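Sat 14:20. Reprocessing the chain from the morning session after the first attempt stalled halfway. Input below, unchanged.
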Amino acid sequence: MKLPAARVDVWIWVLIYGGLFGVILGLALGRDGAAFGWGIVAGGAVAALAGAVLVWVRSRMSDPTKH
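Finished this time. C-alpha cells:
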C-alpha cells in the first residue's frame, strides 16, 4: 500500500504528540502506584516510538513534488 506523504506527516505528529500526552497522563495516574497508569505510560511510549519510526520512514520516501 502506498500512502501519500501528507498523510504520513499527519500520522507522525498525531502519534508523537498523542504518545507524549499519554506518557504524561499515565505518569500522573501512576503516581499512586496504579497499574492502569503505568499501562497508559507504556501505550503512550509505544505510540511516540511509532511516530519516531514514521519520521525515518518519511525521510526515505520520495517526494512527488520534486520530480
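The two ends are 21 Å apart (CA to CA).
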